[in-house]
UniProtKB/TrEMBL annotation:
This is Neurotransmitter-gated ion-channel ligand-binding domain-containing protein. The keyword Transmembrane does not apply. Residues 21-59 form the Neurotransmitter-gated ion-channel ligand-binding domain. It comes from the Eukaryota. It comes from Diploptera punctata. Residues 1-16 form the signal peptide. Keywords: Signal. One of its GO terms (molecular function) is extracellular ligand-gated monoatomic ion channel activity. GO terms for cellular component: membrane. Pfam families: Neur_chan_LBD.
C-alpha cells in the first residue's frame, strides 16, 4: 500500500511554479536513467530508503 501511495505521488504532475519546472527540466535534460552509478558493471548499487511515520501521514494527507 505504501508503494502505491508513493507511486501515485511521483507520477502525479505538479502544478507548482513554472520556473521550478523549467529548472528541473533543464537540470535533467541530459539525464540517462539507464546509466548505473558504478565503476564496474557487476558491482551492486545499495539503495536505502527511509520513511518516518509522520512523513507517511503527511504524504497521505496531501494525496
Amino acid at each position: 500500500m505504501v508503494l502505491l501511495v508513493l507511486l501515485g505521488c511521483v507520477s502525479t504532475p505538479s502544478r507548482g511554479n513554472p520556473d521550478a519546472k523549467r529548472l528541473y527540466d533543464d537540470l535533467l535534460s541530459n539525464y540517462n536513467r539507464l546509466i548505473r552509478p558504478v565503476s564496474n558493471n557487476t558491482d551492486t548499487v545499495l539503495v536505502k530508503l527511509g520513511l518516518r511515520l509522520s512523513q507517511l501521514i503527511d504524504l497521505i494527507r496531501n494525496v
